[in-house]
Amino acid sequence: MAQLDDLAFFQQLAQAGSLTATARELGLSLSAVSKRLKQLEARLGVELASRTTRRLSLTAEGERYLERGAAILEELAELEEALGEQQAALSGPLRVNATFGFGRRHVAPLLSAFCARHPGLEGVLELSNYPLSLGEQGFDIGIRIGEPPDSRLVARRILTNRRVLCASPDYLARMAPLVSPADLAAHACLILRENDSDYGVWRFCRRDDDTVEQAVKVSGPLASNDGEVIVQLALDGHGIALRSWWDIHPHLMDGRLVELLPEWRGVRADFHVVYQQRRHVPARIRAFVAFLEERMPGRVPAMAGGA
């Protein structure tokens, strides 16, 4: 039906955010996309969006058409999948959002293996510094650190993780004594300037009692907005880093980095897979979530002494 085609076209247009991006994704000319939008508005008798070639702003009518249209398309997809769910083969799009470091090292290999097992899937992995909105940007699944603040999302933990204080043996040999987290104020700390976090404050809790906490304001001569750079600076002996267990455990195991203050540990930073609540979660999403739950813990060894 033409109406369903129009709904799908407008969903893609809204997600792309511009006529130019939509034309690129659909493999059409800019004029063809613009013409189709005009024809849709003429059929409906309302303006759906204010636009330039670079940016698209939905009108109130466009927002309503987008929201109700998404519900209709989702209902149709759920119906078709429910009717064909007895078939073993998974098919359809599987769009995943994750952070750069964790996404490259762990999510990408698992998505590759999953799509090789189910060749009917159309897998997309988009990496970003910030978590992207599942609903607004059309993602099926997001990989998040910590519990998601949005109660409308279902969250399943796929990896237990904490941040670990560490330094190279070279820095350890020449550093001043470090007895408690408060002593970090006198050390060269390698600061990760990430997102909007309070990156100048490091937080710890006692290993034997999570209710005992300390927060320390730290500083140092070197900083970066990239976690891999911070790890390399630590390996090069420039100072102390506070990095996630998933990221540095190989260096701790081969002795290139040494854990400091083992009686203290960084706050929990578990990884969760999140997806939108709905009556019927598509089989491809349920299967990939189960695959992540099964495979992810095997990629990162459990922390010594537990989480």
Features:
307 residues; alpha+beta; Arc Repressor Mutant, subunit A; 3 domains; 5-stranded mixed beta sheet; 24% strand
Question: What topology emerges from the helices and strands here?
Answer:
Layout: H1 2-16, H2 19-26, H3 30-44, E1 49-51, E2 56-58, H4 60-84, E3 92-99, H5 100-117, E4 121-128, H6 134-137, E5 141-145, E6 153-159, E7 163-167, H7 169-174, E8 191-192, E9 201-206, E10 209-217, E11 223-224, H8 227-235, E12 241-244, H9 245-253, E13 258-259, E14 264-266, E15 271-276, H10 283-299
Parallel strand pairs: 3-4, 3-5, 8-11
Antiparallel strand pairs: 1-2, 5-15, 6-15, 7-12, 7-13, 9-10, 9-14
Helix pairs in contact: 1-4, 2-3, 5-10
Describe the protein in words.
The protein is an alpha+beta fold and about 300 residues long. The strands form 5 sheets. The protein has a 5-stranded mixed sheet with strand order 4-3-5-15-6, covered by helices on one side. It has a 3-stranded antiparallel sheet with strand order 12-7-13. Strands 10-9-14 form a 3-stranded antiparallel sheet, with no helix packed on it. It folds into 3 domains: about 1-85, Orthogonal Bundle (Arc Repressor Mutant, subunit A); about 90-160 and about 275-300, D-Maltodextrin-Binding Protein, domain 2; about 165-265, 3-Layer(aba) Sandwich (D-Maltodextrin-Binding Protein, domain 2). The model has no long low-confidence stretch (mean pLDDT about 85). Helix content is about 40%, strand content about 25%. The protein is built from 10 helices and 15 strands. The N and C termini lie far apart (about 55 Å). Helix 1 (about 1-15) crosses helix 4 and helix 5 (about 100-115) packs across helix 10 (about 285-300). The protein is elongated, with a radius of gyration of 24 Å.
